[in-house]
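Trying the structure run again after the queue cleared.
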Amino acid sequence: MLDFACRGLVVLAPESLGIPATPVDGNAHVYVVSGAYDGSNSPKDNGEVGECVNVLVISDTELVCTVNTDESFDQSGDSAIDDGTYTITIVSNGGVDVQAGGANEDANYTQSVISSGSTFTVADY
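Done. Tokens:
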């Protein structure tokens, strides 16, 4: 379970953040990323390695979600998330190449900034 302090969450359509049917669609997503997320091109240049599910937006500044490290996208049969340090990135649209100037540009596309608070580590305890 992760609890994030953020801002600007109300624009993400909380109803689209539950358990996504697919990690690549036009809904908002909370991704586990190795480095800085880059959804450019197809496949994504530096896409998600996992996803936070069961997202609950508490307020415009806080959300809570679950990361299942045994199944990267919380779907039966998904591979585990490898041990390592990751960035949690919140995107308003999980589609491919939706950033400004992209082939599928979404004029309202946003993604969270990378900060020390967005770091997530997967390791044996």
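Residues 2-122 form one domain. Worth checking whether this holds up in the mutant runs.
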